[in-house]
Amino acid sequence: MEKLMMTPGPTEVSDRVRRAMSAPIVNPDLDDQFFLFYKALTEKVQNLLQTKNQVLIINGEGILGLEAACASLIEKGDRVLCLSNGIFGEGFADFVRLYGGEVVIFNEDYKIPFSLDSLRDFLAKDSAFKLATIVHCETPSGLVNPIETLCPVLKEFGIITVVDAVSSIGGYVIKPDEWGIDVLLGGSQKCLSAPPGLSFMSISDQAWRVMESRKQPVVGYYANLTLWKHWFANKYFPYTQPVSDLYGFNAAVDIVLEEGIEQFALRHKAIAEKVRRTLKTAGFEIFPDEKAASNTVTAFVIPDGIDDGQFRKYLWEKCGVMIAGSWGQLAGRVWRIGHMGENCREEKVYRTFVAMDKALREFGYKTHRTLASIYAELG
Ligand SMILES: *Cc1c(COP(=O)(O)O)cnc(C)c1O
Questions:
Q1: How many angstroms separate the alpha carbon of residue 333 from the centre of ligand 1?
Q2: CA distance 196 to 56
Q3: Where, by residue number, does substrate bind (predicted)?
């Protein structure tokens, strides 16, 4: 049985990306061609991110980008505003504390996106923050925050904006330069459908100035972004680059750019809407406020009486399809289908629903119509 991994990261990896990873290894520190390849790759990522800001690709899974941004920007005692309405929002605050930042939380319910008005009211009373952290798509709950309106307001108050868009880049066209995003963070294993292992980011001039005018040195080496600032001019990487991962990532970025970033995002939106309509028609409850549901992942409430772990084990082992549960306060409460990147294909979503129909029957859950038939009818 061919297996299908419909999780919100890692996502399915195409043959083209896997083939690219099998190309011969070069010496990344000594081969001029490799520096040129790397430079061209950062330019493609600038294109993907619609930005003139410098792009870095660093060698660790998405979390490294979040941690590196905190390590490089924050000095002991800096006040940081953490917008938190989900598990990654809360986690961001932990990183800020780890690097000596004084955290102020601006929070909202897990189901509700941040509103511009309440952020404005909050900032009118207190805006003395060096930076703010925001999560674009809260992957564990399937919620998207309106960064296109929140970031410009934070910038009005002179606050550096750091946005975790790990699970949304590609599923949305994000415009850091227009929206005032100083540091935009992505990962290889979500919508781009490269294997896990790389973080990428764009960094504004203002954010660079903050990093380069620190009074205290950055704590740590691997997470120190300032080491990367002049890598191309100096033909110097802070450490040996994972050549194969970068070849795979390069092919993954090409795939998105060839389709076109607008078209790629539109396809995500269309499939996301169909997934939610299907689930709702079959009687499932979508978890977040639906106006804020993500183009890339759908979280929906697990029906009463079905054991989360047993159901997903059956679905994977007997039907060959993996969906995700969640964790933290959402553990055992929601299931998630990741319809991003290579997973965002009609036939894969259809196969997921066929498998879920079988598993739901096995677990005694009755829907008046099958998910697969509802999905197929939406055309
Ligand atoms: C996937 C993801 C990350 C990276 O973290 P892992 O859980 O280790 O994969 C960071 N932020 C968000 C919003 C993510 O979805």
A1: 19
A2: 16
A3: 336
